[in-house]
Structure to design on (197 residues):
């Protein structure tokens, strides 16, 4: 990638990482409900899942190139269905027991969120196909960007996580409303994945 494209690439990474998506909303929700330490355990899974998706994207981009394009729509529908399931689960858990007695999310939850997160799949594939492939087809160039990408999304997840931890007391008395907003945001993410542009 030419150095002149670096500001554009970094802006793409920032906007893609900080905007609401499944992992960011999951980080916020977990921190609001269970606190910082549980959310940080889940974040480790989010980071690992993002790294796996990023490396898989490097391999797919290198070996398959444009052959993957027809399948992105199917991945979007799968991701939308998962987001709707998460929204439904958020609504159902709202009336349930508090975080101390409910099964708390952990590493595996975070990992599964990222492995089914179409937003980061598309994010990684677009970053590699738009910022690397037009200038270099070398595996080393793709790998370098692929190794950088897991530090973008998970860093933004931490921002959402710490915001949730800071607002935990504020939302303790408004749990149902917060869960409704989270569920609506997840449903909106699901619709945006499959709604025609």
């Amino acid at each position: 990638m030419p150095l002149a494209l670096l500001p554009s690439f970094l802006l793409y990474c920032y906007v893609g990482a900080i905007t609401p998506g499944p992992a960011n909303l999951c980080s916020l929700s977990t921190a609001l409900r269970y606190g910082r330490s549980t959310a940080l355990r889940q974040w480790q899974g989010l980071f690992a899942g993002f790294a796996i998706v990023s490396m898989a994207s490097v391999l797919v981009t290198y070996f398959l190139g444009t052959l993957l394009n027809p399948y992105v729509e199917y991945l979007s529908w799968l991701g939308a269905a998962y987001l709707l399931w998460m929204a439904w689960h958020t609504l159902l858990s709202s009336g349930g027991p508090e975080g101390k007695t409910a099964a708390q999310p952990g590493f595996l939850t975070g990992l599964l969120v990222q492995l089914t997160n179409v937003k980061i799949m598309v994010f990684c594939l677009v970053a590699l196909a738009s910022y690397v492939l037009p200038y270099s087809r070398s595996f080393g160039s793709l790998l370098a960007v692929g190794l950088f990408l897991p530090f973008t999304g998970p860093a933004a997840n931490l921002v959402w996580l710490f915001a949730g931890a800071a607002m935990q007391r504020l939302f303790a008395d408004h749990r149902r409303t917060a869960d409704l907003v989270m569920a609506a945001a997840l449903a909106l993410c699901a619709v945006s994945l499959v709604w025609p542009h």
About this structure: Confidence is low (pLDDT under 50) at residues 97-101.
